[in-house]
Design brief:
By secondary structure, this protein is α+β, with helices and mostly antiparallel strands. The protein has helices at about 10-20, 25-35, 45-55, 100-115, and strands at about 1-5, 65, 70-80, 85-95, 120-125.
Length: about 130
């Protein structure tokens, strides 16, 4: 397993990993179960959009776990230079690759990145 920086070719894989990993636990999915589709869009559209927004906001702060040349997990970050609080909005590891320390390795890399960017604290929302 290798942790590496995000590259644009990872985008579709990150969306796919997101939809697999957040199925059954996504707040957007729970909203849809209770209220139906919002704005004519399903939870998958909204959750995929969150990842795309993370990519657009701070691609250099996204780290990808790779096994056998394929992405199997990722973590996203957003440093806030005004508050000195870094944000970790999303962390996902494919189910078949869990319990191998990948999530911890991704979290460690993200926290190191936020420290490198001068953050004094991290807010983890995933």
């Amino acid at each position: 397993m290798r942790i590496r920086p995000y590259i644009p070719e990872d985008r579709d894989a990150l969306v796919r990993i997101t939809l697999i990993c957040f199925d059954g636990v996504s707040i957007d999915q729970n909203i849809e179960k209770k209220f139906g589709k919002v704005g004519g869009r399903d939870w998958k559209f909204r959750k995929a959009r969150h990842i795309i927004q993370d990519i657009e906001a701070n691609p250099e702060g996204i780290f990808v776990a790779q096994e056998d040349g394929e992405p199997v997990g990722y973590i996203t970050t957003r440093p806030d230079h005004e508050t000195k609080i870094g944000w970790i909005p999303n962390l996902a590891v494919l189910p078949e690759h869990r319990r191998k320390g990948i999530g911890k390795a991704l979290m460690d890399r993200a926290l190191d990145y936020l420290k490198e960017k001068g953050m004094e604290m991290a807010k983890i929302e995933t």
